[in-house]
Design goal:
The structure is a single chain. By secondary structure, this protein is α/β, with parallel strands linked by helices. Helix content is 53%, strand content 12%. It has a six-stranded parallel β-sheet, with helices on both faces. Helix 9 crosses helix 10. The longest helix is centred in the middle third of the chain and has 16 residues. It is elongated, with a radius of gyration of 22 Å. The protein starts with 10 loop residues before the first strand and ends in a 12-residue tail after the last helix.
Length: 235
C-alpha cells in the first residue's frame, strides 16, 4: 500500500512596506505558491516588530524606506526573530552594505526579479541561503573589491581605531572622514563609496557633530590630531 504523502508545511511570510499597493501585490503574488502564506502586513518597522512577535513568521520581507521606524532601524531587532529579506526600490550601495552588516539574508530590488524568483528567494531565506538581485550583487562585489584594494598599514589601522574610539565614529564615518582629510569633495566621496551625495552629506553632518567641528578644515584638524574637542583657536 502506498503511504499517504505528508503535506508540505507552509512558509509563513510577513510583508513590511508603507505602500498598500505594494503589500497587496506581493501578497497576491506569494499566494500563487502553494507553500507560501502571508500571515501579516506591516506599514513600518515598529508595526513589523509587533506583528512578528504576534505571528512568528518564517520569513520577513522588509522595505528599506518607511515613515516612522524605517527598515534599517528595525532590522537588528527583526533578524533576532526571523530571517529577513530586504525588498525595496532603494539601490544605494550604502543601504545594501548596511543591511547586510545588520543581518539581512538577502537584498531584492523591485523590477529586477520575476514572480518565480521572488518565491525562490523566500524559500532560500527560510533555508538560510542568501539571495540578491543583480544591482545588489554588483554593489556587494564592488564593496569587496574596494576593501581589498585599500587595506591600510598597521600604523594607519591603529590610528583609525584610536580615532574611531575617541570620537565615536562608525566604520563608514571613519572611511568618509579619511576621504575628507585626503581632500575629496562630496561628489568624489560619493563615487568612491558608491553612495549618493545626499547620503554623504548626512554622514558628514553626523561626523561634524561628533568631532564638534563647524567646518571641513576644523574636522580635519581634529581628525589628524592637531586639535582636540573643546580646544579652539590656532596652534
Amino acid at each position: 500500500m502506498t503511504p499517504t504523502p505528508t503535506p508540505t508545511t507552509p512558509i509563513d511570510v510577513l510583508i513590511a512596506d508603507d505602500n498598500p499597493v505594494v503589500r497587496a501585490g506581493l501578497s497576491a503574488l506569494l499566494a500563487t505558491a502553494g507553500d507560501l502564506r502571508v500571515v501579516a502586513q506591516a506599514r513600518d518597522g515598529r508595526e513589523a516588530l509587533h506583528l512578528t512577535r504576534v505571528h512568528a513568521p518564517d520569513v520577513i520581507l522588509l522595505d528599506v524606506r518607511m515613515p516612522g521606524v524605517d527598515g534599517i532601524s528595525a532590522l537588528p531587532h527583526l533578524v533576532c526573530l526571523a530571517p529577513v529579506l530586504m525588498l525595496t526600490y532603494s539601490q544605494e550601495a550604502d543601504q545594501i552594505r548596511e543591511s547586510l552588516l545588520l543581518g539581512a539574508g538577502g537584498y531584492l530590488i523591485h523590477g529586477e526579479f520575476t514572480a518565480d524568483e521572488l518565491v525562490r528567494a523566500v524559500r532560500d531565506a527560510r533555508a538560510g541561503r542568501a539571495h540578491f538581485t543583480p544591482t545588489a550583487a554588483t554593489a556587494v562585489l564592488a564593496e569587496l573589491r574596494a576593501s581589498s584594494q585599500t587595506q591600510p598599514s598597521v600604523a594607519q589601522s591603529t590610528e583609525r581605531v584610536h580615532n574611531s574610539v575617541v570620537f565615536g565614529l562608525s566604520s563608514r564615518e571613519v572611511e568618509i572622514m579619511d576621504l575628507i582629510a585626503s581632500g575629496m569633495n562630496n561628489q568624489q566621496i560619493a563615487g568612491a563609496c558608491f553612495i549618493s551625495e545626499k547620503t554623504v552629506k548626512n554622514h558628514i553632518n553626523r561626523i561634524f557633530a561628533k568631532l564638534q567641528s563647524a567646518s571641513r578644515s576644523e574636522a580635519i584638524a581634529r581628525w589628524l590630531g592637531t586639535a582636540r574637542p573643546g580646544v579652539t583657536g590656532r596652534g
